[in-house]
Write a structure and sequence with these properties.
2 copies of one chain form a homodimer. Chain A is 52% helix and 13% strand. The first copy, chain A, has 495 residues and is an alpha/beta fold. The first copy, chain A, has a 5-stranded parallel sheet with strand order 2-3-1-4-5, with helices on both faces. In chain A, helix 1 runs parallel beside helix 10, helix 5 crosses helix 9 and helix 12 packs parallel to helix 21. The longest helix of chain A is centred in the first third of the chain and has 25 residues. Chain A is elongated and about 85 Å long.
Chain lengths: 495, 495
């Protein structure tokens, strides 16, 4: 895989002087076109061997193009803020929006590689991480990101030559210490592991380009031309829509029975019991939030449900028992322009709690498989792949000690009508009912199908859905609180 | 994920009697359309819980449709023939061709699941196998296979009811033994692991359908309708060609240096040395093939190279030293009609050696990224994804104790001309030179680029390419033999 990169590639100074201005102009033009079209972002990953010119090339790219429209991010060891979130959080934060370039200096491959080379991480664990990288990159390219991955390589001989040259010069001697020679001594192993990683993560949509790093002119021209070719090619492409994928028939199609219709929506639950239980569960929740080991956990709750099912009321019963400094409520409406310029899950990643905190989502990432699906706001292919992207997302939260609790609040069609009318008749509730609510109501069956599909595909052993019978608000609120308390208690019990 | 399947779905006998004939007719019609269009094969995977009606449903499908055009294969524990090949070999053998249905009763998921549930296979190992399944299924769907995956489920309560019913009837009591109850006792764990597997391998192109198995009428209608809908939907679809993916610029584009041009093709090597060395290496190869531990290995060699580079001669120097019972030569030409009806790699899987044997491929699976790419016989998207498919394929061979040795025999353009002319002038060699050879020669540069890309992307730490300087036939043949001997010796040394 490094066969070509091990050759002594070279571009003379003269030739470089002739070629550089042309390349530079062409890159600038491409950057302008990209910014005007705003159809997709370009993300350049820069990885590889120490001393192979990664930093120099990143600087050069910023010099060649307009740096105001390039977001360059260097990733070292995660800082405390980053460590308090799932590992991929910091990459999500740094993604460039449509129309812009992003350069990641070091990226999600680095840690995987370093762990395997220097920390003797097991082969299976390495493979598991590779699979996660594959899924993440596929999600990015499916979302339209143009992903250009450059691997800067030096042969062992070239590495040695470089270190010796640095050592023999008084001005650069300080740059070579035991650490550098330690890296050098591990270079066979490093190359072997990187080769595996590169092979496994080179796909048709996002192949790695191996950049021989010994000759500065050569590596600069190669990187620049690679980026230019990929960006222009994509700009020239007509937008291709994915072939439509139809959902397969669901159980409801055969006998009319489904998880929603199987619910006993009208639960009997009187006010006196409610008040007693409310005090009990709110008290337990408050205690939990102040538990000494709670600082090692985060909690994410998701509220979805029919319009007027009582999501707001249920959420208030949770927040009443929490210290305002320790939770955040996030209401999800239509995405902003900034959010539309990013991959779908971006706007949820940005709201993730750090450890010791609650985040309560009033509507959520499930919008894609509910309203966006039913209203045709995204293509079938988009919402079909969203199920596994969401499952991946939640799995990352959970493996980062986050408790994920998801509620679907269900009311009957009749109860909804009663509540809509009540809202219209009550002056201080009129704002809560809009034409859109009445329009959604007409698509009751389509929403029901979407909800059943969602539960079928995303109610997992690690993040199950809780279906809440909500015709009786008292019953619903207590079920919500109790479920949350039990989920956190179980997680704390695991240590 | 099993939420809906845990409900008590039911279809009455009357309703089934009304619906079955309609469904049956529609399925038969779809089968005929599929057979006429011959555009894609349909592969139905049947998996799930014991006693959930898998066998009955497979029988029913064979009864409903024309069984002559359905290949049904049940996979149990691998037999000795199968065990002697990489694990996926038996599934490749059983793939249906375009225009046909295949039903796999048990499939590549089963072993992964069983190992994790009953053999306490580690979580990472489980994840690694899931990633391999994801890649394999993606390859199948990329190759056009319509993959329909049905998971037959029973809730724990339903399983218990079934076992008790069988036990209480004298005629069926024998069907319930300690094994059955052992399975039942593991069912929580079984469900948890299957849920994980289903979640991870449910993709937009090939989602799992959960079939509640308790009611025979319900499960039959659901399965039948699912298959009908998927097949008809695909038949109605216009063939969508994948968006073109352009290869990124390669090193040769920048400074003209590449792994082929860097070769010193004219090696000096006299006949006397050749004959001495030939005897030596052929002798060693012969000894190796009779080594007592060789029966645990298989060897696959791949010969690619310029036209007239001497592949045939080099191959003969290998086969001369082997017992004819222990090797097979496979010359790869244009695919047959049968082969074109299958995924690309199918025709190579069928020729894989069992342990203790050599298979020598004269041209190979690399045709896709060489001749098919250069001549435009496949789309860019097809050959771009072929690199990783090939790497996956070879990784499977190697993990099944196969030594993979790949040669590119390189001659100069001048040497080729000399050999072409010699062939035309020599009566017994004239058959070896055709108009096609002259045509290929005109695309020398395009082939060179394709070869460099191939080496860059598929010369891996586990299956490296050996580039053979072949202007001097003596030198080339000895290098080929020596490389093979050393590769086998190294593998034997590892034990």
């Amino acid at each position: 895989m490094f066969d070509s990169a091990n050759l002594d590639h070279h571009i003379s100074k003269d030739r470089f002087r002739r070629e550089e201005p042309k390349l530079r102009t062409a890159l600038l033009e491409a950057q302008v076109r990209l910014g005007q079209a705003k159809r997709f972002p370009v993300l350049i990953l820069v990885g590889g061997v120490e001393g192979a010119g990664k930093g120099e090339t990143v600087n050069l790219l910023n010099e060649w193009m307009d740096p105001r429209y390039i977001q360059t991010t260097a990733f070292g060891l995660p800082n405390e803020e980053e460590d308090s979130r799932p590992a991929m959080w910091r990459y999500w934060q740094a993604l460039p929006p449509k129309g812009r370039f992003g350069i990641f200096f070091g990226g999600w491959h680095t840690q995987t590689l370093v762990d395997r080379v220097f920390k003797a991480e097991s082969k299976s664990r390495f493979e598991t991480e590779i699979a996660a990288i594959q899924r993440f990159e596929r999600m990015l390219t499916d979302e339209g990101v143009l992903l250009i991955k450059c691997w800067f390589h030096l042969s062992k001989r070239q590495q040695k030559k470089r270190l010796e040259a640095l050592e023999s010069d008084k001005k650069t001697r300080w740059r070579v210490g035991t650490e550098e020679w330690r890296y050098f001594n591990a270079s066979d192993r490093f190359n072997q592991v990187s080769e595996h990683l590169i092979r496994a993560t080179s796909t048709g949509e996002a192949p790695w380009v191996i950049v021989p790093g010994a000759d500065p002119n050569y590596r600069a021209l190669l990187t620049g031309r690679t980026i230019l070719a990929r960006v222009n090619e994509r700009l020239d492409q007509k937008a291709v829509s994915a072939p439509a994928v139809k959902p397969t028939p669901r159980p409801a199609d055969v006998d009319g029975l489904n998880v929603i219709r199987a619910l006993e929506l009208d639960q009997v639950y009187d006010k006196a019991t409610y008040e007693k239980e409310l005090e009990k569960w709110q008290g337990r929740l408050n205690l939990l939030s102040r538990h000494k080991r709670f600082k090692n956990l985060a909690v994410v709750t998701v509220f979805e449900g029919n319009d007027a099912a009582g999501k707001g009321g249920a959420i208030r019963r949770i927040t009443q028992s929490l210290d305002a400094r320790f939770y955040r409520g996030v209401a999800i409406a239509a995405p902003t322009e900034e959010e539309r310029a990013q991959p779908y899950l971006w706007r949820f990643w940005r709201h993730l709690p750090r450890k010791g905190r609650f985040t309560i989502f009033d509507r959520s990432w499930y919008g894609r498989v509910l309203v966006e699906r039913v209203e045709g706001f995204c293509s079938e292919a988009d919402w079909m792949r969203a199920y596994s992207e969401i499952n991946d997302f939640e799995a990352q939260l959970i493996s980062h000690d986050t408790v994920v609790v998801k509620y679907w609040l269900a009311i009957s069609k009749e109860e909804q009508l009663r509540r809509f009318k009540l809202r219209e008749a009550t002056s201080f509730k009129q704002w809560k009912i809009t034409d859109e609510d009445w329009r959604n109501r007409k698509k009751w069956e389509a929403y029901e199908t979407a909800v059943c599909d969602m539960v079928e595909r995303t109610s997992t052993e690690i993040a199950p859905w809780t279906l809440v019978e909500a015709n009786n608000k008292y019953f619903a609120r207590i079920k919500v609180l109790k479920t949350l308390v039990k989920a956190v208690e179980e997680r704390l019990a695991k240590g």
